[in-house]
Amino acid sequence: MAEESDQEKTEPASPQRLEKAREDGQVVQSRELGTFVVLMVGGATLWTMASGLGQTLSHIVRDGLQFNPGIARDSSYVMAQLSSQFFEAALALSPFLAVVVVATLASPLLLRGWLFSAKAFAPKFDRLNPLSGIKRMFSSQGLIELVKALAKAGLLGGVAVWLIWSNVGAIFSLSLESPSIAIQHMGNLIGKVFLLVSGTMIFVVVIDLPYQLWSHFKKLRMSKEEVRRENKESEGDPHLKAHIRAQQREVARRRMMSEIPSADVVVTNPTHYAVALKYSEGKMGAPRVVAKGADAVAARIRELAAEHSVPLLEAPPLARALFRHTELGDEIPATLYAAVAEVLAYVFQLRHFQQVGGAYPNAPTTLPVPPELDPLQAGIGSKA
């Protein structure tokens, strides 16, 4: 039962799933919304241009029906006349056609924004299977589309019949008007009826748009297993990430150990902590921590320091403070300058003794470490 519930697509699509679907060209589509926008924009434009467009087209028709017996058999004149009338009609209709084309291209922006996906143009040979086509025809989606088409045809047809019947008087009165006035009134009447019929499409859009949104997100639903797999792929395998972190720590530890031979001094706890410091006058603003560790790592730091003759100094409060309040590569805190200065002074004296001789320097025993920086004195809890 648990496996069956994991396979049921009950979870909403994740942002990654939605983005992948968008890249594949799977977005919310409402043909009714696009049709409504194109019809409304085209109807409004037709209504606005009806008067001037009717006059222009009537002028073209009137010129085309004129008969000149003298040149009736001149084929070149006939072709020139037809070309002239064609371009004149195209020029008159071009604003209307341009507005319709712009509306057609812009209507998808209302729902999903601009999208171009090459995958949507890829051939899908499974659609050539007649059995699949029959299955789609008799599916629930096909039934819904059929009901929607019938409802749309009935609604638009009913509104168109009602509008024509309501304006039947105006239609018959056109025969009593002069041709120029009749053409103007007919254009206005056609534009108004077309616009009102197109406006009824809003009822279809209001019903179709929520359904398309629901249907789209339903198709992209995910099972619990798919959600877990996606999270695993996006966040990474925990075991693999732990292995990578372990390798990173090992690389960082090796790099840290390689810095110990060049350190100036290693401050110890004496056994629990070890912190290696380095200072280059003129290159560093303050001494830096080049290595630090606790327990086994601290023991290895002390071993490498002894192998490379790096001085070791037991200063538990300073070692605890440096271990707690610094990271690798950090300069020491300003509040520890005085304590570290005494340590470096001792180291320089020790080098002078080793090179020249003389009195052996005394190691500092009491260093000015602020109590709030020492975890043991501050009550934070630390190894002594």
TrEMBL record:
It is a multi-pass membrane protein. The keyword Cell membrane applies. This is Flagellar biosynthetic protein FlhB. PANTHER family: FLAGELLAR BIOSYNTHETIC PROTEIN FLHB. It comes from Thiobacillus denitrificans. The gene is flhB. Residues 1-25, 364-384 are annotated as: Disordered. One of its GO terms (biological process) is protein secretion. Required for formation of the rod structure in the basal body of the flagellar apparatus. Together with FliI and FliH, may constitute the export apparatus of flagellin. The keyword Protein transport applies. The chain crosses the membrane at residues 89-111, 153-173, 193-214.
